[in-house]
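Re: the request from the purification team.
They wanted to know what the chain is likely to look like in 3D before they choose a buffer screen. I agreed to run a prediction and write the result into the notebook, where they can find it.
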Amino acid sequence: MFFGFKYQNTSFRIMSQITETIHQKKLWVLVSSVDENTKADDLEKITPSVVGLVDEWQSTGKFLWSGPFNDNKTGMAIFEATEDEASRFYDKYDKICSEVLSYHLYQWDSIPLLSMLENTA
């Protein structure tokens, strides 16, 4: 019975950690725009690395939606992550895009329009 208790205690702890991680996850919005001095070659150079970053993120089962705006200079990515995961994703994105794009990372709740849309869905 001692081993059963130990197993149940370990299972409870693991489930507790999983539940805590789920509660820590938030929606994040990464808005990027092409700098005025950016050339088509610059975009072509970073595209494979950005695609690789997105593929790496999604291959671990994490959600990421992205797409361009109508101006073809601005895009947005929405993803779910803990604060640490979002920070690591942003750091990788920064290393890839810092010379080519301007970008900002926001927590979903900090953008009132998106929060209103979430509440009406």
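For the purification team: Strands lie at 26-34, 64-68, 74-81, 101-107.
Please add any questions underneath this entry.
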